[in-house]
Amino acid sequence: MFEFYAALLGLIATVWITFGVYIAGRFYPNYDHINQFCSELGAAGSPTQKLSPWINNYPLSVMFVVFGWHVTQLPDASIAFYITGILIMFHGIGTWFAGYFPMDKDPYTPTPSKQCLIHSTAGSVVMLTLMLAPVFVAISPDSELVAPWFRVFSVLTVLASMFFTVKLVSAFKIKRGAGLYQRLSYWTQLVWLSVFSLVLV
């Protein structure tokens, strides 16, 4: 029974963060999901600085770590699957750090604080781990518990996430649309995680 719920945590985490970001945004006056980063909900001095990590980062970090651990414990898992599980666990750890160390209220400040630098590093870990995890699933041995369609799907989600990340960099430079492309890039990864979760159930 525990294995069943552990396998579902990839899907549950995606649903959780979708509602969590929406709910936190409701408590942030005039919050703009198109132009503001998700992390601005927990930024230093924001109206939802304390609320956002407790409804998003902290519970999500546990879900990601447990789900990643479940992947590493699959019977006869290959080294590729084991690495995938480790990456998802690091994704969870990065999620916790990104919540504990808030970003600066102004994401465009030229001199970010030490806490913001730690937050940004954790954010990079969060993005990179779920960009690499599908790659290892895609190249895992044919004997692994994934169908050919899911290998193709994994590659396509990585390409889509990379595309939206490039668009995010451009949007950040012009200070318009960064929130939208951050969400598209990350939620593309979360869609992969959700499907992976269902594949393992």
From TrEMBL:
Coiled coil: none annotated. Signal peptide: none annotated. It comes from the Bacteria. It holds the Pfam family DUF998. The chain crosses the membrane at residues 6-25, 79-101, 122-140, 152-172. Keywords: Membrane, Transmembrane, Transmembrane helix. This is DUF998 domain-containing protein. It comes from Pseudoalteromonas rubra.
